[in-house]
Structures are given as C-alpha cells and as structure tokens.
Amino acid sequence: MADSTLAILCISYACTFTMCLVSLCISKYFNSPRLFQLNSIVSSTSIIFIYVFLKLKSSWFDTNTLWAFSFSGLSMLTAFKFLELAFAYNWTYTRKMPLKLVAVYLLALPQMPESEAKLSELSKQHLRLEGILLILRGICQFIILRIFLDLTPFEWLSLSSSLCSPIFRFFRYGLCSVLLYLSIDYATGIGFGIYTILFNLQINPVYPVFPFVSTSLRDFWSCRWNNLVKTSLQRISFVVVPKLINPVMSMNHRIKGLFAFVLSGFLHEYTLWFASSKWSGKTMIFFSLHGVLVLLEITMKLPVKPNTFQGKLLGWMWTIGILLITAPLFFDPFIEAGVFSAMK
C-alpha cells in the first residue's frame, strides 16, 4: 500500500479535478447552477475523504514528511477552490468562463478576473516573457534557499525548543520564517511561470510585496503573506459560508474575518496531522489569537500616524514583536513534526 500511495494520491487528485470540470460543462449545457454546486460539494468532500483514508491506511505519510505536508495542503486548498467556483461567483459569469481559465484558476489563480470586461482582456495579453522571468526568479530563490539550508546545521531545524536557549530559539524562528517564505515563493513562482507561458495568463505572485516590513498585523495577513491561501480563506469566509448559512443565521464582517483566521488554523492543523499524525492545537490558537489582534488593530485604528516614519517604525516593531512572541505556537509543532528538517 505504501509503495503505491503517491500514485493513488496523484490519480485521485486528477480524477476529482476532472470530475469538477466535467460537471461544469454539463451544468453549462443544462444551465443548472444547482447541479454544479452539488457536484462541487461532492468533489470537495471526496478529495478530503480519499486523502484522509489513505493517511489512516498507509505508512507512506510517516516516512515522507514534506510530501505529506504538501499534499495535505493541496487537497484542502483544492476543496476550497471547488466551493469558491460554485458559490462565490455569479452563475451567468461562471458560464462564460473559458474552460482553460477555470482549470488554471483551480490550480493557481488566487481569484478569477473581477469582471467580464477583464475576462475578455486576458486573451489580448502577451505575457510569456513575464512567465520566463517568474521562472528565473524562482530558480534564484531556490538557489538562495539551498544555500541557507546547506549552511544551517541539521540540529537547528530539528532540536526541540525546550532544549534551546531563549535567544537561539527566537533566532531560529526568524530563520524558519525566511525558509518558509523562500520555499513557498520559489515553488509557486516556477509553477506560475509555467502556467503563464502555457496559457498566456497573468498570475499575481503569492507574495505581492516583501512580507517582513509590514507595519501592522492587518497589513501582514491581508496584503503581504501568502496571497493564494489568503484569497481562498477570504472567499470561503466572506462569501461561501455566509451564502450557505444565510437562511439560518447572518454573519457581520468581524465574525467573517475572525472565522477566516480560525479556518486558517484548522487548515494548518490538518496539514500538521498529515505530517505528524497528531493535532497540536497550537496553530489553531496562533491564528485565532492573530484574528483577535487584527480586530483590535481595526478597533483601535492602529498603527497611529501610519504615514509618518515614526508611525511606520512603531507599527513594524509591534508587528515583528507579536510575530516573534507568538512564533512558538506556529513553528514548534512543525519543527517537532520534522517539516523543516525534511527540507535539509
């Protein structure tokens, strides 16, 4: 079973992906949004169920930590994308989407074009040079990542935090932040570059701006960190879930925002379970706490005087300080699960 797990993961992903596209074609033919919504729910549930079933039955995940971490995140984000496509967009707009655009959206696009006019403009762009530059940038980041990993002792990426001095512990959290940033950015950059060349579609980078100069937690999570995941979480929390529960209850914007952070915590606990076979609860606390702090920033209108140098400096110190203080809740479970040492 363990020997064939990777093949089964890939085949099951391809099958559910194809099923979603076929159901969209059928739903377009019969002009039935309900049929597509039903199939999207089935597709989302299926891909999660298959991956969880394989995790419980195969020992392959226990010996391939990085692959387990990657596939679990991919399965959950794909499930989110299926639901987004069915519930977050107007059906008359979804019907006009070219099938290749839908396929790339499910694979990589943070969100669909905002209007039919922008949808029609996509075919007029010539972006293959931009795709080549994305690939070259990703290769450079990969080289930098490998240099960091080669220069970092294995023990630094695997030693339990309880055995580290406080100063070294926070230094390691900073190092892990850089490694995480580079690994996500190089992988998505190369992937997005290939998609851009193949389909001539503009795909915004996962990190639109450098994340470690954020002047508030809201700036960090809303504008700078992992745009691909952030956009999916926002659409699920602000559009899909309210639409599904609207007949029963309503959600204000603060509840929707907090739910996005809780959902992010669940997503990271899910990936951690695939990598280590246990739920820590720490990442759920981390993201829930940050959700509350972001709401506090909005309520208190922080940072004060954001357009001045002093305001930006104080905002940056606040943001980095909170990230470092709460870093053990996020990084310790993944260090103990061997995710960072597996990069080595």
Care to describe what's here?
- This protein has 344 residues and is mainly α.
- It has a domain at 1-107.
- It is built from 16 helices and no strands.
- It has helices spanning 5-30, 33-57, 60-63, 65-87, 91-95, 99-107, 116-121, 128-151, 154-158, 166-199, 217-224, 227-245, 253-276, 282-300, 309-336, 339-343.
- α13 (253-276) packs antiparallel against α14 (282-300).
- The mean pLDDT is 87.
Which helices and strands occur, and which strands form pairs?
Layout: H1 5-30, H2 33-57, H3 60-63, H4 65-87, H5 91-95, H6 99-107, H7 116-121, H8 128-151, H9 154-158, H10 166-199, H11 217-224, H12 227-245, H13 253-276, H14 282-300, H15 309-336, H16 339-343
Helix pairs in contact: 1-2, 1-4, 2-4, 4-6, 4-12, 4-13, 8-10, 10-15, 12-13, 13-14, 14-15
In short:
The chain contains 16 helices and no strands. By secondary structure, it is mainly α.
The biggest sheet, with number of strands, parallel, antiparallel or mixed sense and barrel status, is: none
Tell the overall outline.
globular
- Following the backbone from N to C, one meets helices and strands in this order, namely HHHHHHHHHHHHHHHH
Low-confidence stretches: none
Counted by DSSP, the helix tally is 16
What is the average of the pLDDT values? Answer: 87
- Strand proportion: under 5%
Instruction: Please tally the β strands and state the result.
Output: 0
Portion in helices = over 70%
Distance between the termini: 27 Å
Using only CA atoms, what is the Rg? 21 Å
Structural class: mainly alpha
